[in-house]
Amino acid sequence: MLHLICGPSGSGKTALLKEKIRADIEAQRRCILLVPEQQAYFSEQDFVAFLPQSAGRYFEVASFSRLADAVFRLAGGVVQNALNPGMRTLLMWDTLRELSSTLHQYNGNAREDSTLSALMMQTIVELRSSGITAEELEVAARNLPTDSPLQRKLLDIALVDSVYHQKLLDAFGEDPSDRLSRMAKKLEKLSCFADCHIYIDSFTSFTTQEYDVLKQLLKQSPCVTVTLCADHFTSRLPHFESVICTANRLRSLANAVAIPVERTVLPGRTEGRPEALRVLERDLWRFDSKIDTNAKAGDAVTILNCTNLYEEAEAAALQILDWVQGGMLYGDIAVIVRDPEIYRGVLDAALERHKIPYFLSERTDLSAKPLVRLILSALRAVTRNYHVKDIMTLAKTGLSGIDQKDIALFEEYCETWHISGSRFLDPVWSMNPDGLTTTRSPRAEEILQAANRARQTLIEPLRRLAIRMRSSGLVKDRCSALYDYLMELSIPEALSAQAKKEIEKGRLRQAGESVRLYRFLTDTLTGMVDLLPETRLSAEEFLSAISLLLSSSDLGSVPNVHDCVIIGSAATLRVENVRATILLGLCEGEFPRAITDSGMLSESDKSILEEVGILLDSRESIQNSEELFYVYRAVTKPTEKLMISHPLLLPDGSAKTPSLAFQRIRLLLNSRDPEIFDRSMLPSPKTIQTPSEPEKMSVEPSSVGTNLPLSQSKIHTFVLCPYSYYSTYRLHLREKKDSTPGYADDGTFLHHVFEKLLRASLFEDGSFRLPSWEEAQALADQIMESYLGEVCPIPQENMDRRLLHLFSRLRKLALRMLEEILRELGNTGFTPFAFEQVIGKGGPDGLPPVRLTMKDGSTVTLSGKIDRVDVLHLDGKHYLRVVDYKSSKHSFAIEDVRSGLDIQLVLYLVAALSANPAQYTPAGAQFLYAVTEKGKIDVQRSGFFLDAEEVRKEADRTNEKQFIKKLSVQSAEEINTLAESMKEAVRSVAERILRGDAEKTPSKEACMFCPVRDHCDRAYHE
Fold first, then answer.
1. First-residue to last-residue Cα distance in the chain
2. Extended beta strands in 517-602, E state
3. Among 28, 114, 852, 963, which residue's beta carbon has the most beta carbons within 10 A?
């Protein structure tokens, strides 16, 4: 007999089954409860708590797959479980790769488009679940117009289906996905359930294979009882359409095998639940009913608007805490969404933050797992010539054997020198982490050592993997090479250590996944070899196959604690006896989900197929009905409390409107305005300052008597932005280095060339011999080549074009400026006598520091480096001028001296004179800089010069006075005033530094080269 029991949600269908099963156990009659796969765990927990202790002798909970295992154990012919989605998609990929040249509709995409594999697999599964074979599909195609798009499509699908299933037969002897059909055939000859009552609960529909099994169960079992969620067997409500179709099909099945059918209708529950929940159960999708104007949400239903997913998750967590504090258990609460992946990392993070135990009732996507990222990035690296992105992904998986600090320094070094490709295979790196400079800071030494350690740890195993991968194209050899690589990295031990850390943090689910992940991987590689034993794949094809396999696979799990909040999809989650439910994401098109043609057969295609006798279960009307049913089931499960919400914005920034379900609940409960999530429940966010509101910041003042070391660059930085000064010189935050020559590197390069060349022309007696232009060019080329080899120790044949081009530009710039320097020195009475003099350093190349005393007794020590000092001996006096080289425009302005923004020339002149104040007389100071416009390099000067006729004549012996005509003229008194102005500006800046000023004052100039620009909330952006 077939006993169909229908009733709306909460009408007591499962409770009735419990009583019937209890009666069977008391009568010592064998009985089985058949439930969906994802329901089995929860049903076992629920029924065991209700039934007597002796229940295990007569009763078991099973799914169709468990039932098949039991039948095969009795009848023989046990086969492995159905292939996981990844394996099936991989085999489909191989099928399409093999058939690419013979297909009609898909021949252009079959070999290259890996997404086609998933679509084709979805279509084949859809056809098989509807009981449609490749032969039937081919016959249907012949009845369609010749060479029409649909005919070509069907012929391709039929061919792919037959070849795909033949590959399954070749690999396993039988198609693992047909195990239920084979089980049905076994039951035709073997009576396994003659004395067994079958109870079927929580299904809304069945596949063709499941109907085959049910047909045999109806023949054998004295009674098959099926519960269906619907208000009546003749219901016309839209959300019950799919269920009613199932009921009709079951009745037809029973009639076909001459089995009597008994039908029972349970009335809806009228007691024990709040009125608001009863209204929703009765009228949610009953559009022809009159709205009860007295219905109210009351305390039972909370209707909430949230700004985004993060607010939704926080609101859910706070609501759960409120319910638990009111007496509920965590296990009494379920959180239901349409697509859990949208909320992964958001909802679970909010629950963990509030220490709420939960179980996410979905399968874990493997694509984001560190081990999978390691495998794919390693294969991409050896296949695609060690792209830097793949190497960095590999390093950051946490499984590469490198500690986090070394990874950070390794990445910084690679960014500085733009390392990629074969450069990772260099035996050792020696390029300066500080960039294009001959000096190396202690920090640079640390970076260089860490970078070489990390490179060795990463690259050597990859190098061996590449050799093994090249040795053979067979899938089994490539899988073996990958396995050896993972063993070399000690992946089992690393995953074990990772699991222990997860356990220490109380993250038992993640720990379980880490433990199971390695077993899954080895099974996956073994399965790949079984599927494609003698297949040869290129390195790129193997990478595609592994990527497809891992991205299509997932891991299942069960709750690791008994009392926890259950989170799951409305389509798959089956929960019973929950007191409260939270529905999130009730947005238009999302929940309920808008039905679209996701497979290869559109709705119009299915309509045409129906005319030629091909009927598919996955019709749009049925799917729409199921979407409405998912909402109905979620809304009606709780017995006490319901919370619904929708976000106004999704993570991609798109605005969302409430769904029909959200609006319908509001209408039925006469809730005109949803409650707005109270942000006061959240920690107050930091107020973001606007540019018109300067952020007043300060640090601890310095003590009295402090000696403050300063330089032109420090003062310049502070005047532009005190916060940048504090970050750079007090916190010592390092700016990002780059081997691409910038302004600072250009200057260093030019200084080095000019110093070496001019110093070579200065003799020990102080005389200076001006070299010829030919001599200067030859010597400059030698100097530049030596410098390039020192700062960039890469053979030129291995140097990338970017660096070669940049150094070529620098050579051109250096020679043009050198030409101008030599031309000036050939027309002046000034002679270079000191180069790169360090202020604050003793010795022949050093000058005493410039010290200033503050009012409170503190001192300021000024330092720097003077590029060149020239002397003019005239009438018993020794006139000094300082020259500073710049690689770009740099104008001198007296206002900048007085503000402290640019004190460089005045400071350098004061320092040069301090070596012997009684002997030297100031003659001026100048910037020598290059301006490039339209490919032409023009050398210009800016600065000041002493207003003395005899000195001007000697300074520039040309008639046009071309070397000094753009310099401002200053008297000796004005130069002294400039020096005092510079000292006052320094004292003013020093006072602010010593008292702790650190406010943010963003501007284009301040922020352009600031090391903390990317992390400053007020940084200037054009």
1. 78
2. 554-555, 565-569, 580-583
3. 963
How far is residue 862's CA from residue 77's CA, in Å, rounded to a whole number?
90
Give the whole-angstrom CA distance, residue 564 versus residue 568: 13
Is the distance from CB of 519 to CB of 456 less than 8 angstroms? no
DSSP secondary structure code for residue 698 in this structure: B
Give SS3 for 856. coil
- Distance between CA atoms of 130 and 207, rounded to whole angstroms? 7
Give the pLDDT band (50/70/90) at residue 142: confident
285, 318 Cβ separation under 8 angstroms? no
Q: What are phi and psi of 290, to 5 degrees?
A: -80, 135
CA distance 320 to 311: 14
Q: How far apart are CA 494 and CA 502, in angstroms?
A: 12
CA 523 to chain centre: 27
- Collapsed DSSP state (helix, strand, coil) of residue 400: coil
Largest Cα–Cα separation, the chain: 132
Residues 779 and 815 sit within 8 Å (Cβ to Cβ): no
As a whole number of angstroms, the distance between CA 387 and CA 368 comes to 20
Q: Tell me the per-residue pLDDT of 446-473, one tens digit each, with 9 for 90 and over.
A: 999 999 999 999 999 999 999 999 998 8
Query: Any residues with CB less than 8 A from the CB of 320 and at least 6 apart, and which?
Result: 330, 333, 335, 351, 354, 356, 565, 582
Q: How far, in Å, CA of 126 to CA of 1008, rounded?
A: 58
Distance CA 117, CA 862 (A): 70
For the stretch 223-254, pLDDT in tens is 999 999 999 999 999 999 999 999 999 999 99
CA 874, CA 6: separation in Å to the nearest integer? 116
Angstrom distance (rounded) from CA 509 to CA 511 = 5
